[in-house]
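sry for the spam today, last one i promise. struct tokens for design, 391 residues
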């Protein structure tokens, strides 16, 4: 959409009130299947030698001066197209105590298409009308003034509409300005909506989004209950352990009532990261990756123990920590098994911990391990051939 900042052009005065959209563009022309060719049809049924826009002084005008309640009637967006395609960049209307300058639907259609609507009070509007067709005006949108005959006439406009017009953004463009916030919301929503069942498993799915490359969200923590809301004075305190956390069951460390895969029952492999050896639980299918370190307490994991997650193909990944009471280093590796980045997993947090690029392997260890061992991005992950995703 073409941005609107400062525009100078001549005016065409057609100051009639209650000009409806059927007068602007007759309904019989709405059957055209293209978005072009409407300019020559503007006011088609009322054009003629006496019509204001057919006067010589109005030729080449780029600012239309209307009356009040302009654009009333049906909601057809074609009315805005016809005005723009006839060469007009703005319409000036009159705002009376009992009537707005423009109908609501026409106002919204104009904003969506980049046509500036300027509303002046009766005295200001009279100044412009009395100047007559063919007079040059300047509309300064950032300063919200119309300059005509040496005078500056101030007007109001909704900040959001002004911002979109100045930047040249339609509804899609305006939406994409908030793409980062939308993506963050979708991440949280996907994690929340995919939680289900007694253990709070996550069943992620790939969904086509407005933006390309939306991360495939994979859970490292799980779902039972979120941490309690913070209370005044809690700032800086460690997270509160969840009252709903399941108790350990008979069998020793790693056994919990709510876990599907008890730690001692999981296959382990020897891996190396940057030359440092770890004994790692292998999480290479969907259900195991769902569970991760869920419900496992810090005293149940040794400093040289880890979990390794293997995926079928490299994807942008994001892990969360809901129902995980142990702080983690979450290390993302590309398909070449080189370390991309290390994120901090805050116990019980629902915030996503994202990879910095497409990751095919993820290693989780106790928080602070990578810093202590001075393992940095680019470090090599070494694994046996059995470390591969099976689903």
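last one done:
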């Amino acid at each position: 959409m073409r941005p609107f900042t400062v525009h100078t052009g001549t005016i065409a005065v057609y100051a009639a009130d209650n000009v409806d959209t059927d007068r602007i563009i007759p309904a019989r022309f709405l059957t055209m299947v293209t978005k072009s060719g409407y300019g020559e049809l503007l006011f088609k049924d009322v054009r003629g030698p006496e019509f204001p826009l057919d006067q010589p002084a109005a030729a080449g005008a780029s600012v239309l001066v209307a009356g009040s309640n302009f654009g009333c009637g049906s909601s057809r967006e074609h009315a805005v197209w016809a005005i723009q395609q006839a060469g007009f960049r703005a319409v000036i209307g009159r705002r009376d105590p009992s009537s707005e300058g423009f109908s609501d639907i026409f106002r919204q259609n104009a904003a969506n298409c980049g046509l500036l609507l300027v509303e002046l009070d009766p005295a200001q509007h009279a100044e412009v009308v009395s100047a007559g067709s063919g007079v040059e005006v300047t509309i300064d949108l950032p300063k919200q003034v119309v300059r005509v005959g040496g005078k500056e006439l101030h007007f109001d406009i909704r900040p959001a509409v002004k911002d979109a017009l100045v930047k040249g953004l339609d509804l899609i463009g305006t939406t994409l300005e908030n793409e980062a916030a939308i993506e963050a919301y979708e991440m949280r929503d996907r994690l929340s909506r995919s939680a289900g069942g007694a253990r709070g498993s996550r069943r992620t799915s790939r969904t086509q989004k407005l933006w390309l490359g939306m991360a495939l969200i994979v859970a490292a923590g799980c779902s039972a209950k979120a941490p309690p809301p913070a209370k005044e004075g809690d700032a800086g305190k460690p997270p509160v352990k969840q009252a709903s956390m399941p108790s350990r069951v008979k069998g020793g460390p790693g056994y919990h009532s709510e876990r599907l895969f008890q730690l001692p029952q999981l296959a382990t492999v020897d891996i190396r990261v940057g030359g440092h050896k770890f004994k790692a639980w292998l999480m290479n299918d969907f259900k195991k990756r769902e569970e991760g370190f869920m419900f496992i307490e810090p005293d149940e994991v040794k400093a040289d123990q880890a979990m390794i997650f293997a995926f079928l193909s490299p994807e942008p990944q994001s892990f969360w920590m809901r129902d995980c009471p142990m702080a983690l280093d979450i290390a993302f590796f590309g398909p070449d098994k080189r370390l991309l980045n290390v994120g901090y997993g805050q116990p019980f947090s629902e915030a996503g911990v994202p990879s910095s690029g497409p990751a095919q392997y993820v290693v989780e260890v106790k928080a602070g391990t990578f810093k202590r061992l001075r393992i940095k991005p680019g470090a090599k992950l070494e694994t046996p051939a059995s470390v591969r995703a099976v689903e």
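The first strand starts at residue 6 and ends at 13. ok im logging off now
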